[in-house]
Design goal:
By secondary structure, the chain is mainly α. Helices cover 74% and strands 0% of the residues. The protein is globular, with a radius of gyration of 20 Å. It starts with 18 loop residues before the first helix and ends with a helix.
């Protein structure tokens, strides 16, 4: 009896490469981000050294993303060109390495309100960079929506008494590097699968973070972390895995300015979790700011989808 031919393994369905799915993935990223920020507030208490905690958490995400990228049944096996490898290395340095160190060191020196406000302006810098470097167009309606988004941030995190010192400078530098990462990632994702880009971002970033710990004599602190610290690092690392995976998948499908704007909704998720955990509702003005943020982000996404639909209808 002749041997039965080997049957091809069924391939899981691909996520459609449409702007609508990109916006949806950005919403998922925002939800994950809101949960991550809430849980990180508890996790950092178990690992007091921010650099050690960041390395552990990012290490978990890097290992999972690399495993998914190298073991996927439907992975595009075409070899990457040297220029693509160079782009992936840049993502690791300016996305998964340097800004994390700048962010946490700056956070230790800056006042909490000013630090939070500076970081939440990421969408502004992405929008400004996306116009000249990605050729994205910002119509009047989208500019108005971005202004409303910034106004909502100012209501929720008023920069009153903002003092500019070394901590604020480090925070601003980290935010600008993450904005540059978005631009580099958007261009690179035109030819590199998002799963590979996400794995490279966290993998190369982990090498940088581990090198930093070794250079500062703190690499041995990794083995001194308590069991609770390891548990929290694993949990937040897995959440970070979902964040980076959906973030890059969204960038591959939707405009960078839109994805970065929708991500701000994560602040609303964090606030809701904090209110539920403490049993204390925010002040009415702050609630209004969160409503403004959600509405403005929805407006940005809707305008982008409407523009894509109009363009498709014109070329049909």
């Amino acid at each position: 009896m002749p041997p039965r031919p080997e049957q091809a393994r069924p391939r899981p369905p691909r996520i459609p490469a449409t702007a609508a799915w990109g916006v949806g993935l950005a919403v998922a990223t925002a939800l994950i981000s809101g949960l991550a920020i809430y849980l990180n507030a508890f996790a950092v208490r178990q690992v007091p050294d921010a650099a050690v905690y960041t390395t552990l958490k990012n290490g978990v995400a890097a290992l999972v993303l690399i495993a998914l990228a190298t073991g996927g049944a439907r992975l595009d096996r075409r070899p990457l060109r040297p220029r693509q490898w160079g782009g992936l290395l840049v993502l690791g340095v300016i996305g998964g390495g340097i800004p994390f160190l700048l962010f946490f060191n700056g956070l230790a020196q800056a006042s909490a309100p000013s630090a939070a406000f500076i970081h939440k302006t990421l969408f502004v810098w992405v929008a400004l960079l996306a116009v000249p470097f990605l050729g994205e167009r910002l119509g009047r309606a989208q500019v108005a929506a971005l202004a409303l988004l910034l106004a909502g941030q100012a209501i929720v995190l008023p920069p009153a008494g903002l003092r500019w010192g070394s901590g604020e400078t480090l925070m601003a530098a980290a935010t600008l590097l993450w904005a540059l990462e978005v631009i580099v990632a958007k261009r690179l994702l035109a030819s590199v699968p998002s799963g590979i880009a996400a794995a490279a971002r966290m993998g190369f970033g982990l090498v940088f973070l581990a090198g930093y710990l070794a250079a500062t004599g703190r690499l041995g602190a990794l083995v001194e972390v308590s069991a609770a610290g390891w548990a929290w690092s694993v949990v937040t690392g897995l959440i970070l895995t979902g964040y980076v995976a959906t973030w890059y998948a969204a960038l591959q499908r939707a405009p960078a300015s839109v994805v970065a704007s929708v991500l701000v909704v994560g602040a609303v998720v964090t606030a809701a979790l904090q209110a539920a955990g403490s049993g204390t509702a925010p002040q009415p003005a702050v609630v209004g700011g969160y409503v403004l943020i959600a509405g403005a982000a929805a407006m940005v996404g809707w305008l982008a989808l409407r523009r894509r639909a109009a363009r498709a209808a014109a070329t049909a």
